[in-house]
Amino acid sequence: MQRVIPGNIIVRQRGTRFHPGNYVGIGRDHTLYALKEGCVKFEHHKLSGRKWVHVEPKDGHMLHPVYSSTTASESKTAT
Question: What is the pTM of this model?
Answer without folding.
Answer: 0.72
